Amino acid sequence: MTLPVPATTSAATHFAVSGMTLDRPAHLDPTRSFQGLILTLHDYWARHGCVILQPYDMEVGAGTFHPATTLRALGPRPWNAAYVQPSRRPKDGRYGENPNRLQHYYQYQVILKPNPPDLQELYLGSLAAIGLDPLVHDVRFVEDDWESPTLGAWGLGWECWCDGMEVSQFTYFQQVCGIECAPVSGELTYGLERLAMYVQNVDNVYDLNFNGLDGEAKVTYGDVFLQAEKEYSRFNFEHADTAILHQHFIDAESECRALLTAGAPKEGDGMYRVVLPAYDQCIKASHAFNLLDARGVISVTERQGYILRVRDLAKACGEAFLLTEAGGAGYERAAA
Amino acid sequence: MPDLLLELRSEEIPARMQRKAAGDLKKLVTDGLVEAGLTYEAAREYWTPRRLALDIRGVTARSKDVREEIKGPPVTAPEQAVQGFMRKAGLADISQAETRSDPKKGEFYVAVVERPGRAADEIVADLMPGVIRGFPWPKSMRWGGASARPGSLRWVRPLQSIVCTFGPETEEPVVVDFEVDGIRSGNVTRGHRFHAPEPFEVRRFDDYVAKLETAKVVLDPERRKEIIRDDAKNLAFASGLELVEDEALLEEVSGLVEWPVVLLGEFDAGFLDIPGEIIRLTIRANQKCFVTRPVDHPLSGPSGHLLPQGEKGRGGAVGSPSPLVGEGGSARSAETGEGYRLSNRFVVTANIEASDGGAEIARGNGKVVRARLSDAVHFWKTDQADLPDLDRLTPSAEKFGLDLRKPLDQRMARLDHLGVTFHAKLGTQGERVERIARLAEEIAKTLLTSPLRGGRAEGAGGGKDTVTPPPLTPPFKGEGELADLARRAAILAKADLQTEVVGEFPELQGFMGRTYAALQGEHASVATAIEEHYRPQGPSDSVPTDPVAIAVALADKLDTLVGFWAIDEKPTGSKDPYALRRAALGVIRIVVENGVRLELGATLVPSFNNLLTQLYYQGKLAAFSELEKLKDAGVPEDFVEDLEVRFGGSVKAVEADDGVGVSEFYPGWTPERFADLLFFFHDRLKVYLRDKGARHDLIDAVLASGSYPSSGPSGHLLPQGEKGGRGGADSAPSPLVGEGGSARSAETGEGFEAPAVSGTNDDLLLIVRRVEALSALLDTEDGANLLAGTKRAANLLAAEEKKGTKIAASVDAALFREDVERTLDAAIDRAESDAAGAIAAQDYEAAMRALSTLRAPIDTFFEAVLVNDEDAAVRANRLALLARIRAATGQVADFSKIAG
């Protein structure tokens, strides 16, 4: 699968995308509404050949945890996808009192495997699509080596700055689940709230216009999420039952391993049969750890131990995934 | 002669890697050319965030033809040998070889191999793929479809194109054609990412640079820096401001832009209430922006450096110019925002000429700076507010005598309460602070009683490398107060590790502690000591001069050294992960540059005892259920007795909790380890003195002093007895080290002295003084002749000792045959005793003067007397006389180690 992009790969060609008439009412302009921003990105990446997925239906710390990224980055099969992923970082809760920090927020995630040669231009095109003209705004690629110890993953890339603000992360995955990526995927992660605050020119995340309407009909980010931020902060820091969470962690860990064992290759085809459900348990263990961490019951030395345990699960799932169809088992043969 | 142009264009290279990468490229390519037989006139490297470029001028067009003759076997040699020769010389048939003849060898084969020179562009085309594939990036990556295959090209970020042209100025250059993993070299590049993304052709370096400039790329990094610096200064000046220069930031920023455009941004002036240093670092670290200050600020000095008022006062105290006082050490406090206000304007360097003149860029950056400064203000305020759950900190507060109403005291209590590990084998930060506090207190007591302070100052002025000790400012009421202040400063010294600001900016440790200490009303010396106890950080950093700071800085460093020596984590080769060499150099510089007396042996012992006591208390030594075993393990008896006194019968009751005993924690721990640590100090001292221009043979000679037994009447060599009162100083009772404990061990410090270390050699300052005095002595005629005479005596002795000749144990006057012998003996009596007295008074110049009186009698002795007399008794007696010369001079230095 190749992306339907023009043969010439100059930035100018891509910026033209912003000129496309999207036939969208003014209140859905990406600079006026939060949802307009999401819809514009969906539209842009759909035009460039990505499957537009919906959020994964589990609690994750970042868009990278979605199996559409973690697992699909493995193996030889091409894969191009974009989606919004609600992300939870219990420790970042501030009871709704901090204008920039949230324990629940949205990431816009794009994964392109293998990365196309003009991925930077494609990315800049997406910024142009949401109204950031690179001849007005100072867009910069600043070194940022990405690493996720819990996923056994790392890559090289940049923080993308717009007028000094980090609006995205741009990573060429080198390793995921402890496995070398072959081929390498390009991953783009947009911090949607921050980007929206910038294009809408507001200083407080709760003041973001969510639906782009005015007056009575206007719905803000605060209308949607402020109460949740307060309640979840209480939960994360005060009420989450640490004994239960600890049990959840242990249960998820053993369930993950049990599923991998149960689905291990038995017949002649050598394929794993229950990898995706096993990976769900890895995600669950990771979230239970994040909550325990927020409750402050994990010491510095224990912390490393938990991270290693989750990474072991991720590695086991990644290795098993390579022996599934989506993981590319038999792909080379079929292609040949 | 032709020139070579090379450009490797990629996606954005991390700023910190660019300069070295360009240098590596130049080296790899030019080395490759030379190795292939080419020469070049000049080579220069350039870089931007998106390209490395190389301009090599005057390359030879071809490598030279090479003609080589390979000698083969005789024509009569067996077939096998001939075949082997043909393979080696690359001949298809033996008829291609010539035959020569030689009178010895007869007829033999010679292969003449001619390698024609190669065109330079061919050589480059062969060379480049290897250079690119093997490029030494600190971190590199794979990308794109090619990365599915093993062995695909790695680069720092995706490599996009290669320009490589070659040709003389007068002709159209050719493209040097090669390919690396699907990227083919050419003569096409692109300009600025946004201003000029279209491809264009280049011919050679001159038009390359010009076309890039048109395409809004400044290739030369130095020019980009110049543009940013000049424009930033002018922009600030136009607003009545002055740029706070920052060379490291300038280097980084110049690596983030191809077309620098400098703009002024603004934040709310209300933020200026927090220390300028926090503002500067916040804006620098997160935004890569420069800060500015009002031009007419009263504190700005002529050099643009700003000294806070406090610094100036102390600066005056060490004002005497001296080669031993490092300069520029106060850089940190001088260059940074401490003590002065910034303006609320900052300088941002954009990468575009924005169509709106930069308004949006300035607005956006201002917005981010405001958000970051809001965080900083939050940290700053949090650090001065009460911590939650103060109750649980009470035990820690009591242990250290902390006042939990004060913010910094709370942070120290929390540092202890949380049990933050310093090192797995050396316990927690809290325990470390306890040790440092005790040691700082001990050291502070010696600072005021130190015999060299004050009274010795005039004498010290004689040496070229000495510094007048600073007056004790501010005045202390006596040693009690100084010790109390040192203890207080040591206890608060690490508290700022628990502050939010230091959590965000670790480089502000010390500075924040000082700032918060001043805000909560600590004594000025305590606040100073909290910041300066980390100093000196390196050879060019300033040393603390306030007595409280000196005490805490020494205690901090000595505790570190003793601890890591105790667990056998000494530096090896180039590995020194705990910066122990720097710590030892720090101790040396503090002692020498302040003229502080510090007997290392006597200081290290209580330090080590503190450590052992703590470990015992923690149960880590509990495996030694019987104290006798501690003694067997090499723990000094008096220390074990201390334990008995303090812990009594409970020692036996303590069970080993993990079965790990002292011998496992401290394998091979013996008093020798102290000697080893002292040798480490000597080693560092040699390096230090050599750097200051002292002769290394003089240092060796001084360090080897006292190694020959004296046979004379004044045999007392070690001024060790002068310690009086030092060990007996009372110390505040501590839960870990009871009264008397450290006093005893300090007094009995001699017990730890390693056999090889003489007592006079554990005082670094005295070593330096002796080197100075010896150097001065040798500069005189008497000194030079004394050296010659002494060496002659020593050489003679050494030769006879080797032969096993009998040397009398002492000189017998009855065996004197000549007057000169008697005269010399009497002169030695006098000189030895005078010198010993002078040494005891630590007046090394007087000691040298006393010894120099030996010159005449020694010279006369050697002129008039034949040592190797036929009479064995007379000879043995004369040799004993020579031994007395060696011993007398040996009090200050082993003259045999001196060159010349």
Low-confidence stretches of chain B: 298-338, 451-474, 621-626, 646-669, 710-759
Per DSSP, the total helix count of chain A is 10
Q: Multimeric state of these chains?
A: heterodimer
CATH architecture name of the largest domain in chain A: 2-Layer Sandwich
By CATH, the topology of the largest domain in chain A is BirA Bifunctional Protein, domain 2
Strand and helix map with partners:
The complex is a heterodimer of chains A (336) and B (900).
Chain A: H1 11-15, H2 34-47, E1 51-52, H3 67-70, E2 79-88, E3 104-113, H4 119-129, E4 139-143, E5 146-148, E6 153-162, E7 165-176, E8 179-180, E9 186-191, H5 192-200, H6 221-239, H7 242-262, H8 275-294, H9 300-321, H10 331-335
Parallel strand pairs in A: 1-2
Antiparallel strand pairs in A: 2-3, 3-9, 4-6, 5-6, 6-7, 7-8, 7-9
Helix pairs in contact in A: 7-8, 7-9, 8-9
Chain B: E1 3-10, H1 15-35, E2 42-48, E3 51-57, E4 66-74, H2 79-89, E5 98-102, E6 106-115, H3 120-133, E7 159-167, E8 174-175, E9 179-180, E10 183-186, E11 188-190, E12 199-201, H4 205-214, H5 221-238, E13 241-243, H6 247-254, E14 261-266, H7 276-287, E15 290-294, H8 309-317, H9 331-335, E16 345-350, H10 359-384, H11 394-400, H12 407-417, E17 421-423, E18 427-428, H13 429-449, H14 457-461, H15 479-493, H16 500-504, H17 511-519, H18 524-532, H19 547-566, H20 580-594, H21 600-618, H22 627-632, H23 637-647, H24 650-653, H25 662-665, H26 671-691, H27 696-703, H28 741-747, H29 764-778, H30 781-803, H31 819-840, H32 844-852, H33 855-864, H34 872-890
Parallel strand pairs in B: 7-10
Antiparallel strand pairs in B: 1-3, 1-7, 2-3, 4-6, 5-6, 7-8, 9-10, 11-12, 13-15, 14-16, 15-16, 17-18
Helix pairs in contact in B: 1-3, 5-6, 7-10, 11-12, 13-15, 13-19, 13-21, 15-18, 15-19, 17-18, 18-19, 19-20, 19-21, 20-26, 21-28, 26-27, 27-29, 29-32, 30-33, 30-34, 31-32, 31-33, 31-34
